[in-house]
Specification:
This protein is an alpha/beta fold and about 230 residues long. The chain has a five-stranded mixed β-sheet with strand order 5-4-1-6-7, with helices on both faces. Helix 6 crosses helix 7.
């Protein structure tokens, strides 16, 4: 029954049905990237696969927040991604050597709703934080990732835009066969470099991913490009 509800049931409507506009609903989720990283201090040390948190605006599909870390998914890490979503991006990008104008990533706003998983959001700390910011917190039930499909689908697209799988240390850099060198030993990226790649992938997504189905009659009449920006 759970498998049917998530993967095979007929779906009526779409993710942005009933939303008033941008910043109505943000979705947050995390994934483990398909690449192994090394330490910045000793590049012979393999530190594992990073955890990438993404916050996305459901109405526009714009990625409004990002955080890359090494800890497992938790509220302690999710709050960093939410803080990034609510604050200016110019200084954040500059800390990774990327120069942008405010109009290149105009996301520093509070939403009306935040949708997340029980693992991060079910707890007094998350509920109190959202309450103090006057944000409605919507916690999804178990095994219902389809209820936040916008952010779920962004992970695959982000990693493909950054060509992460084909970099040294990537899980798909070559098929592992008996007797071959372990691809983890080829890892060359550190956490700072990988975050920079993710930021550039987000900027590319926000400016160039297209979804004409989201255009309204008014948008079409005003020649609005069907991109998140």
């Amino acid at each position: 029954e759970t498998k049917w509800a998530m993967d095979h049931r007929p779906i009526v409507g779409n993710a942005h049905h009933g939303l008033r506009g941008p910043c109505h609903r943000f979705e947050i989720d995390a994934t483990i990237a398909d690449v192994y990283l090394v330490s910045r201090f000793n590049r012979n040390w393999i530190i594992g696969r990073p955890v990438v948190y993404v916050v996305i605006d459901v109405m526009s599909r714009m990625i409004v927040g990002l955080h890359v870390g090494l800890e497992g998914p938790s509220w302690n890490i999710a709050r960093h991604a939410l803080f990034n979503a609510f604050t200016d991006k110019v200084a954040y990008c500059a800390s990774f050597g990327i120069v942008i104008d405010p109009a290149d990533w105009p996301c520093e706003h509070l939403p009306h709703e935040v949708v997340g998983d029980r693992g991060e959001m079910l707890g007094e700390a998350a509920e109190q934080a959202m309450h103090k910011l006057s944000i409605t917190l919507d916690i999804l039930p178990p095994f219902r990732a389809d209820w936040k499909g916008t952010v779920e689908s962004s992970f695959r697209l982000l990693q493909s835009r950054g060509q992460i799988r084909w970099m040294p240390g990537g899980l798909k850099s070559r098929e592992k066969e008996r007797g071959q060198r372990d691809y983890r030993l080829d890892a060359t990226l550190d956490l700072h470099q990988f975050t920079s790649i993710m930021i550039r992938s987000v900027l590319d997504w926000n400016h160039h991913s297209r979804d004409p189905k989201r255009l309204s009659k008014v948008m079409i009449g005003q020649n609005v490009e069907p991109t998140p920006i």
